[in-house]
Write a structure and sequence with these properties.
Length: 449
């Protein structure tokens, strides 16, 4: 039996977890949910959910992983008994499904990134004007229609999965840890740079205002849909319910202060999501787009290319933006493939590179239909994100909160010391409020599917 791998450094673990958390959820989704959900009023609800739900829940995944030093299937089996391996299996399936379409979307970002090197986005759109006029849609929408399916999408989905598989095949230290040490600081620096640039754009103020001015009325009128949306976003953005944090914590080896690590990771994820809004909204308003994005997979591509086509230096800002998102998506994809790979290594005794290649290959094939028709994106996303992920998170909450609370508190206290009443408070947060939120979100997800 070979020795199970571990992180080389504490920073390596934190960066890997931050790399997983920061992804399309922050950059592709967050600014829009916020803009549509009443600006900073939504932001407040979201922050509340991240703190009250995301923080206790990430700790639950951490203790399960560190205690068992196993992948989600092995971990749940060890803690809950044999039948829990099926629940663990749900985590693996969730990872499979989410990664299959996530890779296609990430491929679009690479495609748009490369477009920035060929010249201005304006020239690119001009070439699509006549087709656009005929169809009665913006040129950027015609472009998105062209690039989002077919050969382009297929090629970049292939490329993205190949890189993801390559990194995971190299292992925890030589692959993932090295990669995130470069990628995560790069994402941060690029976003700060872009936010500063965006600050100098004309009409930046109007963008900030749209983003940050609280409209409590929107929340009051739509709370029944907004609250679950904020809860779902809190889980998705922290990579919860996919087994990622279980798996990453299983490589910790020694006992550290998990609450500190959890807070650091949540701080970075939230900060980066917030920062992205400071880039996206000024860019829109500088380009005269005052009602950015109705939602939907293509919204950010359509409105961002239109904006980059209009503002000065747009193709540089554009390639930086699309490139940054692609890097963020890669560090997230790596974490999901690691979940599935760890399962095959731990439970089936397969060598790492074979496990990564085999599982990555199947995930890749599952994503191919999405490159033919985006209907598959909605189907897979609604199922994985709306149902599977919430179900997995709910089961974990039941296990940690109701079945093994003593073990969980003991494990959390390692590396911290006696938590006293705080440990009990943590368990009760998991037992009741989080459980209720997950049940409601799951109900709405199933109903809406
Ligand atoms: N936390 C990630 C995000 O916000 O984008 C969620 C995620 C999605 C992680 C897909 C990994 C992944 F492959
Ligand atoms: Na995120």
């Amino acid at each position: 039996m070979v020795q199970r791998e571990t992180w080389a450094t504490r920073t390596g673990f934190i960066l890997a977890a931050v790399g997983s958390a920061v992804g399309l959820g922050n950059i592709w989704r967050f600014p829009f949910v916020t803009g549509e959900g009443g600006g900073s009023a939504f932001l407040l609800v979201y922050l509340l959910f991240v703190a009250l739900i995301g923080f206790p829940a990430i700790l639950a995944e951490f203790v399960v992983g560190r205690k068992t030093e196993r992948n989600p299937v092995g971990a749940l089996m060890e803690l809950g008994g044999n039948t829990w391996k099926y629940v663990g299996g749900v985590f693996i399936v969730t990872g499979f499904v989410i990664l299959s379409y996530y890779s296609v979307v990430a491929g679009w970002f690479i495609r748009y990134f490369l477009e920035g090197f060929r010249g201005s986005y304006g020239t690119l759109l001009a070439g699509h004007e006549s087709a656009a006029a005929e169809a009665g849609v913006p040129a950027a929408a015609v472009l998105f229609g062209e690039l989002s399916t077919g050969l382009d999408a297929f090629v970049f989905h292939t490329l993205f999965m190949a890189v993801t598989i390559g990194v995971v095949a190299l292992g925890i230290r030589r692959g993932i840890e090295l990669a995130v040490k470069v990628m995560v600081p790069a994402i941060l620096i690029l976003l700060v740079g872009m936010a500063l640039w965006a600050f100098t754009l004309p009409d930046a103020g109007a963008g900030y205002e749209y983003y940050l001015s609280p409209e409590f009325g929107v929340i009051a009128d739509n709370w029944a849909t907004l609250l679950p949306a904020a809860a779902g976003q809190a889980f998705f953005t922290l990579s919860l319910g996919m087994g990622v944090m279980i798996t990453y914590a299983s490589y910790l080896g020694e006992d550290r202060n998990l609450t500190k690590d959890g807070l650091t990771i949540i701080g970075f994820d939230t900060g980066i999501a917030f920062l992205t809004g400071l880039v996206v909204f000024p860019v829109f308003f500088a380009a005269g787009i005052t009602e950015p994005g109705e939602g939907g997979a293509g919204a950010i591509f359509v409105s961002m290319t239109e904006a980059f086509a209009t503002i000065g230096g747009g193709h540089i800002l554009g390639l930086l933006f699309f490139g940054t998102v692609a890097i963020a998506a890669l560090s997230s994809a790596i974490s999901l493939l690691e979940v599935v790979t760890a399962y095959v290594i731990d439970e089936k005794g397969v060598e790492r590179w074979k496990a990564a290649l085999g599982m990555g290959g199947i995930i890749y094939l599952l994503g191919v239909p999405v490159t033919y028709d985006l209907i598959f994106l909605d189907l897979l996303d609604g199922f994985a994100d709306g149902i599977l992920l919430v179900f997995g998170a709910l089961m974990l909450v039941i296990l940690v909160g109701w079945i093994t609370p003593k073990i969980a508190i003991e494990e959390l206290e390692k590396g911290i010391g006696n938590l006293g009443g705080l440990g009990t408070a943590w368990i009760w947060a998991i037992r009741v409020p989080i459980l209720i939120v997950l049940v409601v979100t799951l109900y709405l997800g199933v109903e809406g599917y």
